[in-house]
Amino acid sequence: MEKILIVEDDEQLLEILSLFFQSKGYRVEGAGSAEEALEKYPMVDLVISDIKLPGDMDGIGLLERIKKTYPEIPVVLMTAYASVGDAVKALKMGAYDYILKPFDLETLEIVVKKALEESSLRREVEELRRELGAIYQEKRMVVKSPAMEKIMDLVRRIAISDVNVLITGESGTGKTLLARVIHDLSPRRKGKFVSINCAAIPENLLESELFGYERGAFTGAVSQKRGLFEVARGGTLFLDEISGMSLAMQAKLLTAIQEKKIRRVGGYDEIEVDARIIAATNQDIEALVKEGQFREDLFYRLDVVRIELPPLRKRKQEIPLLVQHFIEEFNRKHGKNVLGVDKEALTALETYYWPGNVRELQNVIERAVAIQRGPYITREDLPEKVFEWKDLEEDFNLEEYLDNEMRKFMKSAMVKAGGDKKKAAELLGLSYRSFRYYWKKLGME
Question: Any idea what DSSP says for residue 188?
């Protein structure tokens, strides 16, 4: 229950305002001067103050004092027509709004309600910002769910070693980011973190990207080029979508990992390499091994430690934190000042299935920030797909759900028809025979 401090030297008006807001469910404190108000304001959620007050401090001075020490408390000023200039000045100093005397109480209530709602949203934003300290190593790995906490505990333990890591999970879950966190926590963080998408590059180009090539090795090779294994020396080589690599290329990669040596395309000399290998895939790599599409020996070389990133739909506790993080990121990118997301929009974001996982959420928030004009993202700023989706429980039974809905409609029709089944059937657009059938089938006799 919110608490309001009303500062007014007119005792009759102070009593009227106090009784009115108490009747609306608020707790109310009263003060007859700014000096008296200063003794009470830190413990309230909103201040309503007249500008003209007795004593050495008026409402403007009270506002200034409040905003210096507790800027999050909204202040609504009451003023006579003659002091509108002061009220406008007060708005520039941080007052939430002003209302002209005489006024009707309902108008003041609307202003107060809106101020408290926005203040509540700002507090939530601040709380989220504090919680963003849970984003590990100043990266975007939001750790809120038990599953992610368990993963990060494992990451901390294996980061200090040099073991190869295989990260699995759906597209968009943050596999690249997690690989980067492992690198940043490891003794190799002074070296480079080098990544390549193995599925996005043709086999002949992938070999020269990984191992480099000598001048004249093929048409267009006008100079020598180091491969990513060499570039990542002393650091980490991240092989994304490793399952998209051909069997022939897998054999060459296996040799490089086992021997810790490579040979550039078109070259003869062996070059020693020292890069930690982290691989990732969104495929069922064990199934690919059984089907002969992925080398078993390479799989075991990569799968020393496996980390399976859960999809976003299984760690929805992190959605508010991710949303706030992305808002701040895209505020900087697009020069915006979006504060957060309103409740309806956040509920939709938490309910949506997110088939594209964190990457899809990131894209949705960037779009919302880019087109946003106000301080908060609302329904209008989000794609309709977010609101059309209904999340299903794991034990959801469609037939049972439809039966329950039909019972509700049939009961409602019977009430409107005064218990007459024929009339109820007409209301539902059913024949009397069909109505009786469903009435019996659904156990409503």
Answer: G
